[in-house]
Amino acid sequence: MALIYCHDIPLFLVNIDTPGEQQKYSIALIEHMYSLLPPKATVGVTYDVGCVLDRSLQLYEFLPSHITDRITFATSAMHAYAHQWACQLVYNPRIRLGFGLTDGEGVERLWSRSRKLIGITRVSAELRDDLGRWIERRRKKGVEGQGNKAQKVLDECGVDLPYLRQQWALQQAAQLSIRAHAPMHLKKELDTVLSLQGDLDTVDKAIQVMRVTVSKATASKESLRLLSTLETTQQQLKEKVEALYASLNIGDNFPELQNIDLGFVRVLLMARDLKINIRKRAVAISKRKPALMNAIRKFNRYCETLAKLHNSDWTIPLPEPLPTQLTPLRECPHLMENVWITPCPGNIPAWLENIDVREGIRAMLKLDRCHEELRRLGTEGDNLCRWFGQEIGALEVAIAMPSSKLP
Length: 407
Hints:
InterPro entries: KDZ. With about 400 residues, the protein is mostly helical.
């Protein structure tokens, strides 16, 4: 396990001598790093499960307070998008203040470079010598390239930055509230109902196929009787599943939904859980593309059903359908957003309804990260120039010493 700087130069390494990557290794690296830093230095740490490590440090005194008060955690960019949206609102480095354009995947790049057993110290020296060119590439391709695109989006959306920041704060407050998330026991019970519903749908299709087959052939009275009995039993099972859903007492868990049509609420909650499942599959490198596409088509059917059942007086924003192609899906701005399950008091907020505001918020966050990255690169450049000056000074002193002169 390694602790590296944001330009992928390794600082410290630790041997993992236990099955699995336990938190003690990352804590040991952080503690050792802070032992070498000035007493007021602050550090931003990206880690695959930075959210979990941050929570552990909050619950248990693994590190002294003079360290935890000066550290900020984020999840690495590649892993962040597999986390729940509520987690991303806090720990995604593309959203969290102070992380610039750092993606937190430098350790993976380090292992990739050293896969042929090249000495780590040699790699570090090469990276240090190339640091100036790295800073320049980062500034041009990273900050300027992404910053210009974000600025163009901001100019096109025509929304002022103060208003976008206000809407972003409202979005964070709303989506991090307890009411935005169903209780865990309700999720488990609803998953059971959804599983039963899926099984019933499969049996329904099989019965329909059998009905068509029997109608085309000469079937005995006994076959028709058994098929009719099977259909009756299937209908009874459907009624029991509906009763099971009603017994979940959705109204008790969500009083805001009491006056809303039960069928609408049922589809809304099913769409919410299905979208969470789609998001997990879409951001992962999965070979089960057919299953993902089937889930998306089912979610889009839910969206159509909700649009038909919706009443504007309920003030519940409807979910947007998702693209059925993998690349557009991963780029879809709606993918990471949960289905809204509670009414919005008053008018629907602009961050949820207005497409210009939504795109403006994303561009604003990107531009903020670019500005942070530019400041950090400036500090890196100053440090590099200072180090280079010290090296030149040392060489000049060495050359000027009498003992350095050739005989």
